[in-house]
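are you around this afternoon, could really use another pair of eyes. what follows is a protein written twice so to speak, once as letters and once as structure tokens for the fold. i want to understand how the tokens follow from the sequence so walk me through it. anything you notice is useful, everything is just below.
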Amino acid sequence: MTTMNISLPEEMKAFVETQMAQEGYASASEYLRGLIREAQIRRAKQELEAKLLEGMQGPAVEMTREDWDSIKREALEGLAGEAIRP
């Protein structure tokens, strides 16, 4: 893991400390990692929604066995990756 230093105004620092106490985070780093993970999830959902919208606006295409196998493989890889995350 790498280190990143950030500067915050005093009132933001106080907010982070309050959130840590209220939500049970052990450190400011843990709290910020949680916020970043949430932002990453939001971004992934936005990208998926954009792809789904694009697909819905395009012509209908018949799915092949290879398409379904690829979707299944990607889903299983994604689930395996989720199990590894802290």
About this structure: The chain has a mean pLDDT of 92. The CA atoms of residues 74 and 80 lie 10 Å apart.
